[in-house]
Structure formats: C-alpha cells, structure tokens
Amino acid sequence: MFSLKILIVEDDSVSALLLQRALEKNNHDIIGIADSGEKALDILEENIADIVMMDINLAGELDGIKTTEIVNEKYDIPVVYLSASSDAETLNKVVGTNPSAYVIKPFNIRELNMVIELAIFKDRKEKELQKLNNELEEKVRQRTADLHEANKELTKALEKEREINELKSRIVLNVSHGFKTPLTSILSSAQLLQIYAEKDHPFKVKIAKHASKIENSVRALNNLLTSVLFFGKADADKMEFKPKKMFVGAFVKEVLDTVKAGIENDVTIKVTLGDLPKTIVSDSELLYQVFENLLSNSVKYSKEGKSVDFKLDFKDQKLLATFSDKGIGIPKKEQSQLFDRFFRAHNVGIIEGSGLGLSIVKKCVEVLGGEITFESEENKGTTFYVSIPVK
C-alpha cells in the first residue's frame, strides 16, 4: 500500500496511540495527533495531509462533525470517521458531511487499511469526476458562447438578406412600373397604325402586319412585367385576398376576349358553362390570373387545328373550372416541377414563355383557398382542374 500523510484527531490518548502504531506499521506518515477540533485545524494550517482520521465525539466547541465541515470547506481532504457507535442517530448526523468512510471502534488492522484505501480511491475518483465536470462545463460555456456568436452573425446575415430582398423587390417594382407607361403608349400607337391601315394606302398590308407584330410583342412584354410585378408583391409579402362582388358573365367574357386576342395559332376555344350564379364574392384580380394563365397556356401549347375545352360550373359554393387541351403534354418525369418558378418542360421547343404563369396560378389558388390538380400525357394533352370557394 502507498504511503500517506495522515492526521489523527482523537481525544482518547490510548486509542490515538494504537491507531498511530497501526498506521505507521503500514508505512504511513503521521503528521500529528489532535485531541480537539481546534488543534486539528491548527495542524492542518501548517501541514499538508492526505487523509484525516476523525473521532466523532470530540470535547470542546468543535466536535468531529463540525470540524469535518470546516476541513471539507477549507482543505478538501478526505475524512474517515472513527466512532464506537453505529446507531441510526449517529449515522444521520455524519451523512450530511459526506465522509469518505466510517470505521467502528474497536477496529482491526486489515479493516482499517481497506477503509483508508477505499477512502483515498473514492476521493481521487470524485476529484477526477469534478475535474471532468469542470472541463465539460467550460466546453459547454465556450460552445454556448460560440453558438451565441454564430447566432449573432446569422442574425446579421439574415437581416442583410432581408434588406437585400427588400431592395430587390423595390427595384423590381419600380423598374416594372417604369416600363408600364411607355408600353401602354406603344400599344396605343400600334392600335392606331392598324386603324390607319384600314384606309387605302400603298403599304396597307405591311403596316397592318408590322402593327400586329408590335401589338403582340408589347402584349407579351406587358404580360411578363405583370408576372414580375406579381412576384415582387408575393416576395414582399404584400399578397392580399380582397374579395368583392363581381359579375360572373362579365368576368368570363373578359378572360375569353383577352385570350382570343392573343391567339397566334389555329386553335379554337370550346366553352361550356354550367348553371352559374349571376354574381359571386371573390378576388377578381386573383381569379383573373388563374383563368387567363391556364386558358392562355392551353391555347399556346395546343397543336395547330386543335381545340381547347373550357368548362365552368358552380357547386357547393365553389367555382369548378376545367381547362383541357390536346397539345404537347408534360413529360411524366418533369410533372413534379410544373409549378416551380421559371420551370419550362424540355419539349416546349420554340414556343415562347417565361415559366412564370403556372407558378402565379399556384400562388393565386393558394391565396384564394382553392385547389388545383392536373392530368397530362406527353403528345396527347393536359387537363387542369381548379376548385375555388366563393360566396
């Protein structure tokens, strides 16, 4: 067994002497023998001890328990209690001081050595555990500080991103609005050219042809800007549902007139209207975006000479619309991306488009609280089903 520096605190001189001899026989160094708590503390002030053998029932103001409390607080040295009593009352007194061991008098040498070894082992393990706990707490503190710093940096980055997005939205909105006025002027001029072309003029046919090209190009650019403005509002969280009373017949006529005016291929629209109410309450602008985009797409992606079926019905306070074409269809492997912004299927060929129309439709349907589904097969056509709750 390794040699230890031991302080004996025992007010019975005979017991103290016997304990000293037993410990020295095992090569331990006795740094002192104290018969009171006060003397024990004086010795510890001058000497370093590895362990204290403490009698519980000491005379004077400081008994063994109070002395142990001070030793624990000031020196953090393991204490082994010595007592002739092992009753419950005594054990309850000592348990609060967290002793390293407890020896009943009279003791034998083997038991004493075992208790001392266990006490030293327990003390070292507790100190190792405390060291590990302190290291862990330091790591947690450091990691918490690092996370706090990272969170601050992330917050700054998010704030910067928000500012950039706001700036981007303002630029998009301002630029788009800036284009609107000259485009309206160009469109008006093109329409005037078409009126002039109706009169006798040597370049009548050419004027009408080029005026039509200008008008179609301006309409396409105007639609693109409308889409950009729409997503500018959506990205800035300014999309609002603004329901108001609207006439269903006038709304359907407006959508059909707009789409028919933009038809560039030999495609016809077959309209089937069910038992529709005269008026409904909904957001006419959002509804227009849904119907105009879906019907325009059906016409645009249809094959020459084919027709588009547009059906509208009213049931259970819902507008039920179907847009069906016999066009190029959507490849099956790309159908999951259909409503993604800027997505265009690989089979669109030279058909012009921005890839924004269906993403606008999806967003509008969500704001309206409706549902949209579709069925499509490549080279056979596509059908969209839209359900919009109205009042």
Which helices and strands occur, and which strands form pairs?
Blueprint: E1 5-9, H1 13-25, E2 29-34, H2 37-46, E3 51-55, H3 64-74, E4 79-83, H4 88-95, E5 101-104, H5 109-197, H6 204-235, E6 244-247, H7 248-261, E7 268-273, E8 279-282, H8 284-300, E9 307-315, E10 318-324, H9 357-368, E11 371-377, E12 381-389
Parallel strand pairs: 1-2, 1-3, 3-4, 4-5, 7-9
Antiparallel strand pairs: 6-8, 9-10, 10-12, 11-12
- Helical run tally: 9
* Shape assignment: rod-shaped
* Main sheet record: 5 strands, parallel
Percentage of residues in helical conformation: 40-55%
Strand order of the largest sheet: 2-1-3-4-5
The helix-strand sequence is: EHEHEHEHEHHEHEEHEEHEE
Number of DSSP-assigned strands: 12
Radius of gyration of CA atoms, rounded to a whole number = 46 Å
Ranges where pLDDT stays below 50 over 5 or more residues in a row are none
Distance between the termini: 93 Å
Please state roughly what percent of the residues sit in beta strands, choosing from under 5%, 5-15%, 15-25%, 25-35%, 35-45% or over 45%.
15-25%
Residue-averaged pLDDT? 81
Structural classification: alpha/beta
Please supply descriptive tags for the structure shown above:
alpha/beta, five-stranded mixed beta sheet, 9 helices, 53% helix, HATPase_C_sf, kinase
